[in-house]
Amino acid sequence: MNDFFNWSDGNHFIHLPTVCNFFTWYNGRKGNQLIEKRRDRVLCNVDLFDACNIAVCNTLTKYKSDHYPLMLTCNFEKVHFRSRFKFLKMWSLNDDCSRVIKSSWDTMVTSCLCTSWTENLEF
């Protein structure tokens, strides 16, 4: 299993967490004999996150199997929103306004929101 994780990490794949059941396989036994594992996974890369605004992996009801089927749902529709940012003319009259704007435009951004979000996912 470590080889698989090394391969997926080395290729910058992201393991999507499952919604509903964390474990995707069980041995069909009960009590102390029960064994559950997360054997099935959905992997994606940053390009998928850049292309869609929602990517969710759900476990479905298992039927005649010891595995829970996985369903990947992606929404590729562009999200339109109104910016709440307002720039009032009076701000330009303030002596510090030009300095604040210049310093913020000179600040280098090292990651996009999606990258920051995926770095904080727990697996």
Q: What is the helix/strand order?
A: HEEEEEHEEHHH
Would you tell me the overall average pLDDT?
Answer: 82
- What's the alpha carbon Rg, rounded to whole Å? 22 Å
Decide which structural class fits the backbone.
alpha+beta
Strand order of the largest sheet: 2-6-7
Helix count, DSSP H or I runs of 4 or more residues:
5
Distance between the termini: 14 Å
Relative helix content: 25-40%
General shape? elongated
Strand content: 15-25%
What is the tally of beta strands? 7
Low-confidence stretches: none
Q: Please tell me the total number of domains.
A: 1
InterPro entries: Endo/exonu/phosph_ase_sf
Main attributes?
123 residues, alpha+beta, 3-stranded mixed beta sheet, two-stranded antiparallel ribbon, 5 helices, 7 strands, 29% helix, elongated
